[in-house]
């Protein structure tokens, strides 16, 4: 996997200008014709072709030939560069480091803010299959969008807004610092994912803190995680404080299937704590606590 930081350092302003032009054209073309990119970027054809050759070598664009005409489209790596440039311009990120995690629909990178805070930058990558599945099972995905690129951007914005509201209510979630396109920059948690079954001094306290966060989300923010499990919880190493992560699929508590999803979220967590840590709580007891 190429280093995002190394690729970013190789890009000049003219490269970003062509990438932005192609991003704009992606709403009309799956593959944008060279002449359209020339018009949108404002460069002469020869210069545009040279820039596109560089972007192709860096795996930021894909190319195809139709007859005698060549056309191009952005890759997810190009969208990463645009998002990273946006976070830099917003004074959110000053440096990006190694990849620290890979999920079903995202990649996580360690980063640094201009103030010296450690961050995690999460790039959401909804592919063709997950894009179709998302539109089937998530109410927010019925909004008109033209591509899975756009759907990833919607998901990132939703996650940032959810985290910002939950953090304001002092819920157990990472502090959000900003978002751009399909990327969110959040507080870096030096912890262990719950599914790895870390040794907990007081697992009953950890479970209670998870329920506290679910309750704040439901009562104060009016939202339900909707996909909660041991894979969406990070336990801080020293304090054993649990942080609930991965919020883009949240739903509002007044939606039709909200209570069903809340029950499912709680059932998964209670079953895990019972199975791994022998901490027992009845589902109805947890449900009453969260919704009261």
Describe this protein's structure:
- This protein has 292 residues and is α+β, with helices and mostly antiparallel strands.
- The chain has three domains: 4-74, Orthogonal Bundle (Arc Repressor Mutant, subunit A); 78-187, Phosphorylase Kinase, domain 1, CATH 3.30.200.20; 191-291, Transferase(Phosphotransferase), domain 1.
- The chain is 46% helix and 21% strand.
- The chain has helices spanning 4-9, 13-25, 34-41, 45-57, 76-89, 128-137, 148-168, 203-221, 258-277, 283-291, and strands at residues 32-33, 61-66, 69-74, 95-102, 106-112, 118-124, 176-180, 183-187, 191-193, 223-224, 233-236, 242-244, 251-252.
- The strands form four sheets. Strands 4-5-6-8-7 form a five-stranded antiparallel β-sheet. Strands 1-3-2 form a three-stranded antiparallel β-sheet. A three-stranded antiparallel β-sheet has the order 9-11-12.
- Strand 7 (176-180) and strand 8 (183-187) form a beta hairpin.
- The radius of gyration is 21 Å and the shape is elongated.
- The chain starts with a helix and ends with a helix.
- Residues 128-137 have low confidence and may be disordered.
